[in-house]
Amino acid sequence: MIDYQDSRPIYEQIADHYKRLILVGAMNENDPMPSVRQLAVELATNPNTVQKAYALLEREGYIYTVRGKGNFVRGGDTLVENHKNEILEKLVMILKEAKEFSLNLRELVDEALGRIEK
Amino acid sequence: MIDYQDSRPIYEQIADHYKRLILVGAMNENDPMPSVRQLAVELATNPNTVQKAYALLEREGYIYTVRGKGNFVRGGDTLVENHKNEILEKLVMILKEAKEFSLNLRELVDEALGRIEK
DNA sequence: TACACTGTATTAGTACCGATAGTACAGTTG
DNA sequence: CAACTGTACTATCGGTACTAATACAGTGTA
What we know:
Two copies of one chain form a homodimer.
Chain A: H1 10-24, H2 36-42, H3 47-59, E1 63-66, E2 70-73, H4 77-100, H5 105-117
Chain A binds a DNA duplex (30 and 30 nucleotides) through residues 9-11, 35-37, 45-49, 51-52, 54, 65-71.
């Protein structure tokens, strides 16, 4: 699951992995996350690294923590909605840049969509 | 021109500044760039930092260097075209992610465009 | 209560990056 | 030759990101 060739930090890879599982519906509300220690052993990394990943996920609203018990998946449509907004934000940023340089936004978007459909 | 509050490195800010000037047409083909040493003095920074910015601009095709003479703006439509492609790439990346999570691309794009028009 | 599990906090080591500095080299122009 | 261009290389300093080791703290249960 961890790709050491990948330049992205381990904690980020872990976070993204579970973010994906949750958004896709492979994990549901209140499902327990693996314990910090257990996952650290599995991934042959340090509990702190896992913890950093979990902290990130918590900040972004994907999981919640109960001291002494564990981490659990936070459910609801809010998650999907938040994720959608994240993507929307990025999209707006890029399009704003394009607009600054007088590019034709519609044309740009259509071209992009075209490349994906295939 | 340099914003020390900005977390982005100085050399990147310099590069972006001139990239913008060139793309917008404020600088034209074969216009001379300020000399490395001169610009360093102006910006109260180090010649090496400016050089790093110029090296970046050269790698990306925005300027060309003539040993002993200086750096000059590389012109032509290629630049605008390249920049457009850069943006297009980013756009495709984001939309691909959105698609993975079964988001409605058209809807997403329209929402983004809507936010910009204002 | 004791133990085994959970997460939390602190500190330390390592590595990398950005910026600066100094110095030396090389081509161009007048 | 002098004064300007860019180029190359090395060294250093400071900050920050990442990971690790270790100790601390809450929860649940036999």
